[in-house]
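Thread: ATP-dependent bile acid permease, structure

OP (GT): Posting the sequence first so everyone is looking at the same thing. Length is 95 residues per the record. Can we get the structure tokens written out before standup tomorrow? I want them in the notebook alongside the other entries.
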Amino acid sequence: MLTPSNILVLDEATAAVDVETDAMLQTTLRSPLFANRTIITVAHRINTILDSDRVVVLDKGEVVEFDKPQELIKKQGVFYGLVKQAGLDTSESSS
């Protein structure tokens, strides 16, 4: 992860770690070290991607939604349901 690269793909990178380790990794990924990189994240933990620039929501292998997380929440579609199910804040002020 620390070798400079324009694109970083994380496929369930935090699935097998505890919440504290996940938070540490998220902080690192949001640091200046990764500021000018494209990060593609495959995740089931919604909080992992809630502050991403864009989110692609898949259902049965099909793209069903694509937009900024807050825009998807406003639309109250699939992503909104996942955020609510995770017990996360769905208000516009959470951006």
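GT: Both are above now. Quick notes for whoever picks this up: Residues 19-29 form the longest helix (11 residues). Residues 1-43 form one domain.
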